[in-house]
Design brief:
Elements (H helix, E strand, L loop, with lengths): L1 H29 L3 H22 L12 H4 L14 H6 L6 H7 L22 H5 L5
């Protein structure tokens, strides 16, 4: 009997402590200024995009990845917010999302040759690219 009461008390105490931490975390956001809340949201979004990239759900064609596909469902993520498939569109020679289009402009050389569809490099400095050789 004492063992059941002790287990019940430990469970209730754990649940109470968990509730306190959960409540403290959610109310902390309410105390932030508008600028602080914005910073926390942006950091959270960027962290979540990084997690989606690691999971293979965010295949953006620029680096750093676009945020448009994460924030809203659109044709470039096959209407599933939180994912990105712009690299699929780029590989097929189709238009990528507007944010990727702006970023991709930085990934082309003066002859408008794409340097790296997956944005592994941010410039066309490679001699293989300039000479037209395959990088494979």
């Amino acid at each position: 009997m004492k063992k059941n009461v002790l287990i019940s008390l430990i469970f209730l105490l754990s649940a109470f402590i968990g509730y306190i931490f959960l409540f403290a975390e959610s109310s902390g956001f309410k105390k932030l200024s508008a600028a602080e809340a914005y910073d926390r949201i942006i950091k959270g979004r960027d962290y979540a995009i990084g997690q989606a990239v690691k999971a293979g759900d965010y295949r953006c064609c620029i680096d750093p990845p676009c945020t448009m596909c994460y924030m809203e469902a659109n044709k470039w993520n096959y209407f599933k917010a939180g994912t990105c498939a712009c690299d699929d569109f780029a590989a097929r020679g189709e238009e990528t999302c507007p944010q990727c289009q702006r970023g991709a402009a930085k990934l082309h050389n003066e002859d408008n040759i794409s340097c790296d569809v997956n944005a592994a490099s941010s410039s066309c400095a490679s001699s293989a690219v300039k000479s037209g050789e395959s990088i494979d």
